[in-house]
Amino acid sequence: MNYFKSTLSDEIKFRVLYLGNDHNFENLVMSLLGEKLCHYFIADDCEQAILLFKAHPIDVVIAEFYYLKGMPECTINKLRSIDPNVTVILLNENHEIICSPLDLPCLAKNQCPLKPLNLENLLSTIISGHKDIYDQNLTALSATAFSHSSLAMTITNHANQIIAVNPAFTEITGYQVTEVIGQNPSILSSGRHDKSFYQKMWKTISHEKKWSGEIWNKRKNGELFLEWITINVITNNDGEITHYCSVFADITERKAAEERIHKLTYHDPLTELPNRRAFLERLEQNIANAKRHQKLLAVLFLDLDNFKDINDTLGHDVGDAVIKETSFRLKSCIREDDLVARLGGDEFVICLTELNHSADASVVAQKILDLMASPFGFDDERFILTFSIGISIFPSNGESVLELLKQADQAMYCAKFSGRNRYSFFDESMQQAALAKKELVRELRSSIDSEYFSIQFQPIINLLTGDIEKAEALLRWTHPKLGEISPAKFIPVAEDIGLISELGDWVFRTCAHQVKAWQEKYHKNFQISVNISPKQFQDASFDLESWVSFLSDIELTKASIALEITEGVMMNEGAITDQRLAMFRGAGIEVSLDDFGTGYSSLAYLKKLDVDYLKIDRTFIQNIHINQDDLTMCEAIIVMAHKLKIKVVAEGVENEQQCLMLQSIGCDYAQGYFFSRPLTVQSFDYLLQPKH
User: Fold this and answer.
1) Is the peptide bond before 459 cis (omega within 30 degrees of 0)?
2) Measured between alpha carbons, how far is 455 from 503 in angstroms, rounded to an integer?
3) What are phi and psi of 149, to 5 degrees?
4) Domain annotation covers residue 314
5) Whether residue 525 sits in one domain with residue 602
6) Which of 220, 237, 415, 492 qualifies as a cystine partner to 424, CB 3.0-4.6 A?
7) What range does the domain containing 202 cover?
8) What pLDDT is attached to residue 157?
9) Is there a contact between 624 and 634 (Cβ–Cβ < 8 Å)?
10) What angle do CA 214, 217, 222 make, to 5 degrees?
């Protein structure tokens, strides 16, 4: 057994097995085939031939006629049983080709007529036989692919009548082969596409000989489906159309998945409004249109006031329902061409296009505020939520997406700090205010654990005895660079950035230590009033029990600390307010109602409040000695409070006349500059010392 590998050329194509005993002739065959050889194998018996045939891919077998002996168990038959597609060329004793591959259907000698061809034609015979087998294999492979493809395939004649479909077509459309043969593919038409659609499609097929695209079609059961289809034209040698071949896939589910992904990418899942990404893209387009048509455009930045309280008190389910209802209200306030989106949380944004005047934006803003005045109702809860709205105008406040959003955001904060439930247009002063606030936030964060914070104490005088029995704790921030910073400036910022609870806890614990020291030194019943922020009071994570435990740990009576809560918090009826007040009462901590008379108060409402002290706001006190109405109001408050066993503290007393008037109408306590300004610990300590 011999094996030769040709090295004449890399383009040699055939692997040939020579089966015979004539060594001179086998060398002659090798030289005749020349560069068309890839490998040349030689075997001189059946066993060697079968071993080589199994070990190597063979394209052509050249065998002497002798190897047909022993039919049907001859060597040639055995090789053909291994690879039925191999090309076999038989030679007679004169080395003439007597049989080409297609002449061996049964290998019977009397069915293989002699073909006296010259040996020089050996190469052309091999190529011809190889091509015939290749064509047969390709045809069989194409038929297999047609039958087994997961893509639906149809072949129509030049008249566009279906002549063949594959099983995938039947599976996708529900039509059997017999139902569509001879039919026009329009049998699948869904009716979704108009006549012009198909005219454009066939125009493209006519000019470009192919077309691809999406088409809605209809299954046999009437169900619509979306397909991606490619139609190709088949022509003859003269360029005449003979057939059309189409391949399509059912992409209904894939398209639906893409749309779901697109919706998640560009829409808020709760409200189904456009989200931040979608809004930014649309706003950029609207700005370009406004530039082109020289029109005004407005961006409204909206933030729900105190929305966190809803989540904390009523739960996130109610909070989600509020957000959804709010989105419906907002959509009802704008035109079809305008855009409303949810940025996240309780923030919304609106783009108003093609405005004639900037005042047009204020009309929409006021419409929103008016609509929000209608109470929200969920289960047994009814409440009102308001918006703080900031407005920026293109092009006067900016010409880019980021500029307009930034300016509207700053204007919104201006509206919020101005009292909420209002709108505000951006102006340049807000830019400076925003920068100042940014610096304040940065310094507040860095100062939170520093010695820059301190507590001053303002005396509260018993008007009957003239003794200092109480003090109000007032937080102060002295910054090394910014100087004294008003609580009116930094307290709202601390509430916004989430530092108020940390500050409040520090104030409470510091005051507890201080009141203990003053009780031991001067007055065993001395009390300090500590202001508690509405944000901290209504924060579900506020741990009141830790405060109660702390007072026990330092052996301080619970009445040593009174917590001052604003009237607005107390009037906000809800589960968390009632729960907090009950916890205070159960722990023995006294509660003082601050700023009475400035909010929603009424004398009748006092009976519902479980408080120990009521503080009359300074606005009622400042004219009490010259205005009879103010005096009468204060007297009525005091009488009603006493009937309810509530003691009264007057704030902002600045002169002796006010003090005398308050004494005359039975007020219990008073504080103000007439008695003393807020003092440091050292100065207050001196004030408490007995005077001889």
Assistant:
1) no
2) 11
3) -65, 140
4) yes
5) yes
6) 415
7) 149-255
8) 93
9) yes
10) 155
